Structure formats: C-alpha cells, structure tokens
Amino acid sequence: MFRAAFRRLLAIDDPPKRTALAFSIGVFIAFSPFLGLHTIAATLVAFLFRFNKIAIYAGTFVNNPFLTLVPIIVASYALGAFVLGRPLSIPAEGIELIKNPHLFSGDYYHQMFVQSWYLVKPFALGATLLSVICSLLAYPLTLWLLRKHRKRRQESH
Questions:
Q1: Distance separating alpha carbons of residues 38 and 81, to the nearest angstrom
Q2: Which residue in 77, 85, 109, 136 is deepest, having the highest Cβ count within 10 Å?
Q3: Which of 60, 45, 44, 50 is nearest to 9 (CA)?
Q4: What is the pLDDT along the chain (157 residues), one digit of tens a residue?
Q5: Residue 77: which of 119, 106, 117 has the closest Cα?
Q6: How many CA atoms, within 13 angstroms, populate the side-chain half-sphere of residue 142?
C-alpha cells in the first residue's frame, strides 16, 4: 500500500516543493491526536490550500489503521508520558475501574472521565510532538526523493 502511494506521489506533476509540502502536511495530520478525523482534516486542508489530494492523502495514510495505528498511538503516549515525567503504566485506579465496571452508576462514569485524562494528556502531547517532528523530517526527505526521481526521469528521456 505504501509503495503504491509513493509511486503515485512520484507521478504528480506539481512542483516538487509543493508536492513535498502537501505530503509533509499529510504526515503532520497522520500523527495528530485527532483520531478518526485525519481524512476529513486532509480533505479540508487540500481544498483550502489547493494542495494535490494524492500528495496530502499519501502523507495522511502513513497512519494506516491496519498497520501503523497501534504503534503510532503507543509511541505518542510513551513520548508524552516521558515528557511529562509520568510512568508508562496505567494508574491502579484506572485498572480497578476497568476490572469492576459499575455501568449504572453516575460516579463510575465520572471516575472513568477523570482517569481517562491521565491517558489522554500524554497521548495528545506525544502525538503533537510526533506530528511536528515527523512532518519536519518528511519535507526535506520527500523533496530530495522527488527531485532525484525527476532528474533520473529527465536523463532517461
């Protein structure tokens, strides 16, 4: 899947800088903490800034639900927990809520909400940091690959 998306990216006729920018913005979206909204965000950005949809979707689909979603979530949480100085484990109170659910108690849902922030905060911070880091790395790498591919293609003609 990644190979096919990369081939399509190489075939785009837009200037390499613009294609690399669209791809790197797609990578930024892929690592963002807004799970489930990546495709919508990529579509909106592509239309607003008139980016090539193939380039931005190729970057966005780095976060593939079947291959990379779980590792990206784990890496995001781990990075955020590290930055916040928290352990990687879920607190005992959160484990207890999962083990002994009281589905008909309002207090149970309140406690679940409170405990979920213990996980959401490091995940959101880590995902945001990974978004910035990975998109900043993706731009020059993609630009270099696109220029190299176009130069090779021109030399062969």
A1: 23
A2: 77
A3: 60
A4: 556 666 666 667 788 999 999 999 999 999 999 988 999 999 999 999 999 888 999 899 888 777 888 889 889 999 999 999 998 887 787 777 777 777 788 888 888 888 888 888 999 999 999 999 999 999 999 999 989 988 887 888 7
A5: 119
A6: 31
